[in-house]
Amino acid sequence: RAHLPLPVLDVLRRLDSAGHRSWLVGGAVRDLLLGRRRATADFDVATPARPAEVMRLFPKVIPTGVEHGTVTVVLGGEHVEVTTFRGEGEYRDGRRPSSVTFHEDLEGDLERRDFTMNALAFDPVGREFRDPFGGRADMRDRLIRAVGDPGTRFGEDGLRPLRAARFAAQLGYALDPETRDAVPGALEVVRKVSAERVCQELSRLAVAPHVAGGLEVLAGTGLLEVVLPELVELEPDLRAHAFAAAAEAPPELALRLAALLHVVEPERVRGCLARLRFAKRLAEAVAQLVAEQRCLELGPPGAAEAAGSDPALRRLLSRIGVEQAEALAELWRADARSSSRAHAAAGLLSSYRRRLARVLAAKPPLSAGELALDGASIMKELGIPPGREIGQAVRHLLDHVLEDPKRNTRTRLAAELAAWWEARRTGD
Ligand code: ATP
Ligand code: MG
């Protein structure tokens, strides 16, 4: 069973001694019960004390959201979010309540929480556990169930259905039927959720252990139409293949997204990732993987281009770098394992990996900077100033060297450069 960090216990003790019986709440309690290691170890404490009182009790605090009752206590290297028992006023924008009311009792605070498994409270000082909505039973049944009426709760906050899908992916739980049935009616509210929050939930879903289950929730409830319409337009078989490929890919965001999107036309992938506000670098890496994997997928000629010859493989490495070339192997593997062509593809994949290792072991020059003839020397050889021609010459020499690394000597490159320049001059 996972344990509670001492500083968190200290925060609870200090609040208790000041006469405010306080509780560990939310995901931390859920994960303690599950013995689940928390990647993002955030600990939430609910207390009857008002923010001003919490700030008085602890020397180091960050006033995170005092108007909502939240103060972050920094103690022993741990950040503990201490929030005054509260309920929520009306929701106006489908995301943030327009007002909050403070409560004297824990029950009222638990009632505003999204799912029964997230509405648990634990007091490690008094050794008491509170579970007013049957969260523990739902966890035993591996069910995600809304607290209260699911339609109402989803209507208040469109993030909740997305959280449900994300928890399904993280925990391997199913949505309770009533909760699941309430999602389609809440899609318009889900559309109001900011792209950043959608991106955050989708990212966590994508790298989760039960990603296929989470994707199935998205597809089966209409959420997919809101967050990834590109996948909705696909033939069902192709979409199922993309889901399976994502599940086969290692749990890294770029790989999982590439596996999921490899069935979408490469030209649409960038737009899709930009709309979801994924970081530029990540989006580029994913788009590149999808585009390159498409080349490999085109069947025997395409496959032969990448995996078939050493020069082709060096060109690939020069184009996308070693890391991406290795990621491409992972992607290819995931694709193969989840397709009917698994057998044929597996053979090509192992030959690709063998060749990749062998080609890299020879440490071939793969970039312009590694050429035996640098830009300045090229200008000197040709007797011309910087300009478009120099760039073209560099590219030509790099291609020449990628074809055969032994050509990378000053003498041989100077000779090739002269021949290229002459052929160019005579329009050959
Ligand atoms: P994790 O931290 O592992 O992602 P979590 O359940 O702790 O999961 P947080 O976002 O840290 O998620 O939220 C802490 C708690 O606040 C939740 O357990 C839940 O009780 C409540 N909560 C969070 N978001 C919502 C929401 N949109 N609607 C209602 N309650 C919420
Ligand atoms: Mg949390």
Task: Summarize the topology.
Blueprint lengths: L5 H12 L5 E3 L1 H8 L8 E5 L3 H7 L3 E5 L4 E6 L2 E7 L1 E3 L11 E3 L3 H6 L9 E3 L4 E3 L4 H6 L2 E2 L5 H7 L2 H13 L2 E2 L1 H5 L5 H4 L4 H12 L4 H11 L1 H5 L1 H4 L3 H13 L4 H9 L4 H10 L4 H18 L2 H9 L1 H28 L4 H20 L13 H8 L5 H16 L6 H16 L3
Parallel strand pairs: 2-5, 10-11
Antiparallel strand pairs: 1-2, 1-8, 3-4, 4-5, 6-7, 8-9
This protein binds adenosine-5'-triphosphate (ATP) and magnesium ion.
The site of adenosine-5'-triphosphate has 11 residues, from helix 7.
Describe the protein in words.
The chain has about 425 residues and is α+β, with helices and mostly antiparallel strands. The protein folds into 4 domains: about 5-135, Beta Polymerase, domain 2, CATH 3.30.460; about 140-225, Hydrophobic Seed Protein (Orthogonal Bundle); about 250-365, no CATH class; about 370-425. It has helices at about 5-15, 25-35, 50-55, 105-110, 135-140, 150-155, 160-170, 175-180, 185-190, 195-205, 210-220, 225, 230, 235-250, 255-260, 265-275, 280-295, 300-310, 310-335, 340-360, 375-380, 390-405, 410-425; strands spanning about 25, 45, 60-65, 70-75, 80-85, 85-90, 100, 120-125, 130, 145, 175. Strand 3 (about 60-65) and strand 4 form a beta hairpin. The mean pLDDT is about 90. It binds adenosine-5'-triphosphate and magnesium ion. Adenosine-5'-triphosphate binds near residues 42 and 113.
Keywords:
428 residues, Beta Polymerase, domain 2, 4 domains, seven-stranded mixed beta sheet, two-stranded antiparallel sheet, 58% helix, elongated, binds adenosine-5'-triphosphate, binds magnesium ion
